[in-house]
Amino acid sequence: MKISAKRNWVILVILLALTPLTLIIKLNNGVGRTDGYKKFLEGNEQDKSQPSYINNISINNISNDSNANTRLDKGVVVLMFHNVKPGTALSPEKFRETLHLLKINHYNPISLATFHSYLEGWGEVPPRAVLFTFDDGYQDNYQYAAPILREFQYPAVVFPVMKWFSPYPRRDVDKSGRPAYQPHLTIAELQDMVKNGWEVGGHSYDGHWLVPVDPEGKERIPFLKGRMWLAGRGRLESENEYEARVWSDIMLMKAQMLELGLPTTDFAFPYGAYNNKLLGMLKQAGFKYFYTTEAGINLPGQELIYRVAVKSDPQETLKAIEKRYLTQKLSALATVSVSR
Ligand SMILES: [Zn+2]
User: Fold this and answer.
1) Which of 105, 122, 147, 337 would bridge 20 by S-S if both were Cys, CB 3.0 to 4.6 A apart?
2) Whether 249 contacts 269, CB under 8 Å
3) % of the chain residues with pLDDT over 70
4) Domains of the chain by start residue, with CATH
5) Does the global pTM surpass 0.85?
6) Cα four-point dihedral sign 107, 161, 36, 289
7) Which residues lie near ion ligand 1 (Cβ < 5 Å)?
């Protein structure tokens, strides 16, 4: 009887001790994931864990704060844009409205250099700091986004695919596989943007397409993500062949960037897909900051950068940004309870 009561007591203590751990596991799995890209991250446990920077948060500010709904004013939200043109998800009017809304809500767009210094832990950013990033290097970024950004005097970053400058852009396909031509920037346009304050990161040389992983091509994965099916040889690539293919793409990208006089520290994963091997090779090539498509807030010490996808409705974009600050706080609180 006595032993049984003691055992129950022990079980109760263990359960209590495990409760905060369960909470943080739940938060880690439920927060900051974009479902569409989840499948590309499968099989990579490290990618699924909350980054270690969470432990670096100054938890005093948070634990002294009794109001659970207070917004945390720290960190940088990186916004991810693609096209800005009439007839797409984000028309120039909606783009302007988004910038206006950010402005009247006291958001402060920062430059890439400011972002770097903040991540490295020696630079400050203003409250409500945001960084604008544009993926793929579409011509409309020059035609529509750049003039509007200039009006607001907001800096921005573009991640062009280094082989896709007009007049030789990729052959785009729509959802049904039909060609859907999209004009890309010319090199002269990119250089003009750089002259006007735009900063540039890499988005592969020609690694932004899906490769087959079976003979029929039923399943396809992002070019940089894993081993592809070699039709001529009737087999999957070896791990070495995969690495060699990815490495040559990185080297071609880097050579092109150096030739254009562009820095090589920032890289946006095509489709948001990555693994530790790809990350290691990019670091070996000199890249330091890696932009994912997972939503979250960015703090000093991070190298995997969270981004918030911009919505068609400017109000929804604002809500998505605000959510990142509140999520951050929940994670921090959970960390506090675990460390006790
Ligand atoms: Zn892209």
Assistant:
1) 337
2) no
3) 71
4) 31-339 (3.20.20.370)
5) no
6) negative
7) 135-136, 270
